[in-house]
Amino acid sequence: MTTSLASLTRPQKAAAILVAMGKPSASRLLKFFKQEELKALIEGARLLRTIPQADLERIVAEFEAEFTEGAGLLDSADKMDTILNESLSAEEMNALMGNGEPLAIKDNLPPVWPQIERLEATQIGAFLANEHPQTAAMILSNLAPTYAARVVLSLDKPQRSEIIKRMMELANVPEAATKLVEQQLRSQVLTESAQKDTSAGQTRVASVLNELDKSQLEEVMSDLREVGMADLDAIRARLFSFEDIPSMAQKARVALFDGLSTELITMALRGTALPLAEAVLSSIGARSRRMIESELSQGSEGIQPADILRARKTIASTALRMANEGLLELPSAQNAA
Predict the structure, then answer these.
(1) C-alpha span between 198 and 234 (Å, rounded)
(2) Whole-model pTM?
(3) What pLDDT score does 200 carry?
(4) Maximum Cα interatomic distance, the chain, rounded to a whole number of Å
(5) CATH class given for the domain over 5-96
(6) Domain 5-96 identical in fold to domain 240-336
């Protein structure tokens, strides 16, 4: 029994072409279909019978924008089941056919965008400089705005303007295209970065040096400079101490102290010089400031110096974490820009 071409629905025509392509090619394509589309394909295929060669060729012609090759003889629901069963897991098949909870079909690779945002913005800017502006616009649109802004500033002005223009006009990007771009980023950016980038080592060194007080830090940095240690400027850009707070922009200071308790701030301010204390107090609300000033006016008798130092390091560590997350900018980064 044959199936009339006129009676075929679009899902049935798509199912016919997939079967005609054969299992290897069809299996690769199935990964790009949405869950509801796969379900429609399965349901449509179950109603198919033999399709004459001439009708199949006409179906292929209708879909030539999506499928550039296609040849085959017969179609059946059993063949479609075979392709799907070899492409999807049992859980995915059950979810598609309504026999279980919906299950998203996805790869096991970690998201690429958070990994990209850990790299230097100039490194991504150099990569985008060699890409088509449309591709660059798509990549920047998937990055966090703060990080993307730093990448944009690293680009040449003409290229920067063209990419921003395309970002404004960018429509929804097909999932298949997004996957291809993510794959290229993994192979061309992340892999190369893992081989060449020394930022992880710089971060480890900086985390050790950040435990030192100001005088100890300067002594160690001077020693490192004398022995000709490479990337010393990059390490310094990752350093931050409580005493550096006056050098921060007001906006950054407000962001830093917004989530900190008054008890922690009070402890850290004990015994500080007036300029440092004012830089902190001017970054918090009036009510919190009055509470802290009242507490400080009672003196520091009985307060252990180790507790004060611990509070200051906690605030410095919080500033470093927020800077790494793009929530604020440290003075070292501002000076280097």
Answers:
(1) 10
(2) 0.41
(3) 59
(4) 97
(5) mainly alpha
(6) yes
